[in-house]
Sequence to fold (505 residues):
Amino acid sequence: MKNEIHKSIASIFGEGGRPKNSQREIKIIDTTFRDAHQSLWATRMRTEHMLGIAETMNSIGFHHIDMMAPIQFDVSVRYLKEDPWERVRELHKAAPETNFRALIRSKNIAAFDFLPDDVIDGWVDQLYDNGFRVIGAFDGLNDVSNIVRCLKRAKKLGAYTFGALSFCESPVHTDELFVKTAIELIDKADVDAIMLKDAGGLLTPERIRTLVPAIKEVIGDRPLELHSHCLTSLCPLVYLEAVELGCDILHTSIAPLANGAAQPATQTIVKSLRELGYVVKVDDKKIDEVSEYFKNICEIEGKPEGKPAEYNPLHYKHQLPGGMLSNFHAQLETAGLGDRYEELLEEIATVRKELAWPIMITPFAQFVGTQAVMNVISGERYGTVPNEIKKYVLGYYGRLLGPVDSEVYKKIIENGSSEISEKPTSPKPMMKDLAAQYPNATKDELLLRAMFAGNQVDGMKEAIANGESGEEYNGELVSFIKGLAGGDEKQVSLSTGNFKVSISR
Fold:
């Protein structure tokens, strides 16, 4: 068996595959309700879309179904004008046997800056109280200290917990780093599972052959999950290689909400796993039923279907996630800057290197992308610095894995807002004051108000009361770029999804 493990996937298939059910069981986590539409539909799947097929999803046999991360809450409130907590309750009611998953993003959750402990505790409690029994967390800097509190609280409540290793390619993101982080997640948070989270779809078969065995060696009996995207077209092969090396659980989505910027298609991966001899206990006919359901929605509503991507090694330079990449290009075209797209991608790669190789996931992908846009538009690199970039280099978002370029650091400190203290301070408790300000509000509402400033929650509530639907994405980057080009405003802000940058002049 040991020699067989080291055979290539091509060799195994070339020999006719393996006998049916001759290998161990591989479990599937479905991402159709969460990351698939986040990647392909700009997170615009409505609750009604999900409820229409929830009963079928409930009986397919998935290990877990991924339902909510911060951006699902954000888009529901800001754009869809739906109560995200109501989605949570309705789906749990419609699919009572399903283990739905919730993902927490660092100490921000769905906010722009770090939140106080009373909000983090309340968020975890509310996830659990509204039905989630599988709760996990990730941090874009792999700073475990940012997610220990929420993971320990979820575990204390009785939830199954998972901790994520956020992956990217860089000189500092070594196998040793990911092994160290996995050990830390187990030692400090006692997580039930480890998830290798490759939001940029950057893993290769070569890298997986060293990384998976290294992680498996230190996590004991805990299962290893693999979550990736098809941005380079390599993901299906990476998944099969990972399973051969001991990975236990794969994240897939049901075509047509698969491939491209999303996860590999469940249909294809399950078939391939079975050809390799693995046991996969999912109902193929019901998966086909779900597939037809979403094909109809795509056709009726004009939503895109996922298509296989071409391999492009330049992706490894800028490492932008798929959803941001497509939106970035489209909005540059709208702003009259489409001819500078390639230049901007090169600048993104340079900025990322200068800023100590941040992983290109929310919010750091947006920070880097915005700084690159300003560098190119202004013609002066780091002459204009978003507040969030200055906070990043000062450690507001956690421990950096390497040093920021010294000259760049000086420019950021000099040109960034003077109102930002060079020493981060802990945020003050919020929930007591919010409860006093909104005495009739439910805990659901108070937590949303802690995340979303201004009248966002009021707008959601008003739309729901009036029976109104939300609006589609309105292209904030275009306005942001035009505001920068104008140069008159004292403050220019971009707020999109669960991300915000602001420039103080």
Notes: The first helix runs from residue 2 to 5. Strands lie at 27-30, 64-68, 100-105, 134-138, 160-166, 193-197, 224-227, 249-252, 491-496, 499-504. The radius of gyration is 22 Å.
